[in-house]
Specification:
By secondary structure, the chain is α/β, with parallel strands linked by helices. It is about 30% helix and about 20% strand. It has one domain (about 1-235): Purple Acid Phosphatase, chain A, domain 2 (4-Layer Sandwich). α4 packs parallel to α5 (about 175-185).
Length: about 240
């Protein structure tokens, strides 16, 4: 079973159209969008993001729903939580499935999502929590599923890995996410948030014990084979 995973598209319709076209291919079973869905923050950002969701993304996913393929989405730290009502309404209409703090069936696998990241210097705080709070949330989330057969989608990458490196060379991932992966060893984890890490480290995937962790960054998306995750490939925009 193959899925498309994209993250940090930041409201760029051209990128959405590219991943939707790829997701429409016969061999693809589902599309997963891992956070930072709406345009970058700026003047009037909440209203701009709301308009993007209401007038582009939700209608576009409603049209894609005709394919019968599920679309799993969640917000990221640059998305205003107040606009979640639009996604909740779209979920009721069958256009998408909201992953944050939930577990869904995906063929013979499960998929679960978690949007929150550790505190940053940025102004928007809707999806920030302390590492202790994140760890507690992940314990609850993992209790709902068999981690060994679950794809966990975290907006934050694991700390101190090849997936969380900033332009200045420092690491900005989550220690709670890393600890969760080490303890639970899920079959696969999908990440985002740190756009530049794959280019800086040359790595978009890393093994952490038995778990394969992926961060395609914002300049590419991944075609992920759930039966053979190691064979997953990166496609650049």
């Amino acid at each position: 079973m193959k899925i498309i995973y994209a993250t940090d598209l930041h409201g760029n319709p051209q990128l959405y159209e590219r991943v939707l076209k790829e997701a429409g291919k016969k061999e693809i079973a589902a599309l997963v969008i891992g956070g930072d869905m709406a345009p970058f923050l700026g003047f009037g950002a909440m209203r701009v993001q709301r308009a993007f969701l209401e007038y582009y993304l939700v209608p576009r996913l409603e049209r894609f729903a005709i394919s019968g393929k599920p679309v799993f989405v969640m917000m990221g730290n640059d998305d205003f939580g107040i606009n979640s009502d639009l996604l909740e309404k779209a979920e009721l209409g069958g256009a998408l499935k909201l992953m944050h703090n939930k577990v869904f069936q995906l063929g013979r696998f499960s998929i679960a999502g978690y949007s929150c990241i550790a505190p940053t210097p940025f102004m928007l705080k809707d999806w920030e929590k302390s590492e202790d709070e994140i760890a507690a949330d992940l314990r609850k989330l993992s209790s709902k599923t068999d981690a060994g057969r679950t794809v966990f989608v975290f907006h934050a990458p694991p700390a101190n890995t090849e997936l969380d490196v900033l332009y200045n060379g420092s690491h900005a991932g989550s220690t709670a996410v890393l600890g969760f992966i080490k303890r639970k060893q899920p079959m696969l984890t999908l990440h985002g948030h740190i756009h530049e890490s794959p280019q800086l480290t040359g790595s978009w995937k890393q093994k952490i014990g038995r778990t394969l962790a992926l961060n395609p960054g914002s300049n590419a998306f991944a075609v992920v084979d759930l039966e053979k995750p190691d064979l997953s490939v990166l496609v650049r925009f």
